[in-house]
Amino acid sequence: METSLAPRRLLHLVASFCTRKSLLNSLTTRTRLVMTLLLFSIALVVPAHVAAEPPNVLLIVSDDHAWTDYGFMGHPSIQTPNIDRLAATGLTFTRGYVPSSLCCPSLASLITGRYPHQHRVTSNDPPLPPGMKPQEFYRSAAFEQGRARMSQHLAAATTLPKLLGESGYRSLQTGKWWQGHFSQGGFTDGMTQGGRHGDDGLTIGRKTLEPIKTFLDSCNDSKQPFLIWYAPMMPHDPHTPPDRLLNKYNVLTDSIHIARYWAMIEWFDETVGNIMDELSQRQLLENTIVVYVADNGWIQSQDNARYAPKSKQSPYDGGLRTPIIVNWKGHIEPQISSHLAQSIDIVPTLRKALQLPADDSLPGIDLLDEKSVARRSTIFGSCFSHNSNDLDDPSRSLRWRWMIDGNTKLIVPNPELEPNGSVELFDLEQDPFENNNLADRDSDRLKEMTKALDSWWNPN
User: Fold this and answer.
1) Edge-to-edge strand ranges of the sheet holding 424-427
2) pTM, whole model, 2 decimals?
């Protein structure tokens, strides 16, 4: 996808001109011949995969979803036929990662293409004043002021909706959105009015898909390309699936909590299928790039409704790993890739696919560039406290930094916030669930990777 937008736009302009009968009738035979030759010449320099109209984008983000918990990832019980279909017909990275295992910073990284310490949205909530309980804090002026500061950080960044808006796109926010009113992220349309998690936006998927249907119809009427941010609070707790799904999974496990979580995943998958059906009915599938990722992981506790250790908010793969899918019918060759990918790659991938100007300051790569994907062997990330300690200094909220080089993973705790933590080194190929710490056995590898991690970001 090396072609700029200019040939495509010129092709569309000339094609539109040539289909206007009144204008054609006013031209001489020679002029009509020149116009035809011009159209043919332009067509020759525009690759077949570049659509005459700008492609649409559907970004699907599941919430608190373990990397193991999909049919196509090999789960023995959970059924996800619609996501499986996206994976089978798209470019699927089974070793995808988010940089941080907490939803607010993870979503901010997804929409900006930058690490949390770069965009400075590191935590879910502002600093909690000493002695104040969380529920009291959420109603306080300190909370509102803190959230406003967090939103200012995102407002200062170039987000995907802002970028696409400059090229005539409309964009719809639905579901999870932490940074104030949807317009602060650059969305032209949306559901969230400014509340924590996403207020009105959280009805998407669980209660309705009507805002998406209405938006699709409106964009069709106005002939505008679009971006849809579909980030429902699913399978995120509360795990309240329909009885028909809960009954299906209740007989497959001894834990009601696991059954509810599994049922939530299939419920989410059904909504993905519903949205894909809406695109199909409007004949939009071949001109819509569909991207899938989870905001962070989740390992369901067997004996309560919460998550187990080494999952959400942790530096382990149970919190960080997610499949990443890029699907564009007729334009992307289906492939299952074991190469490393990150959610920060999605913005540069879409910039290139949509023929938008490159931004060399972005840390991610174009996932459709096979050479770039194969060349990269190292990825990085960092995890922060749930409540920030300093809204302007990411290092003050840092709990762990981590990196993966090939199949080796390094986790380095921040002694100020994790005084009992230890440096950990894992062989993910032999030990995918990170049970065997090799830090004391391979000092050379540990030293080499620590140096690389410090070169990426050293908060000291």
Assistant:
1) 378-384, 398-405, 408-413, 424-427
2) 0.89
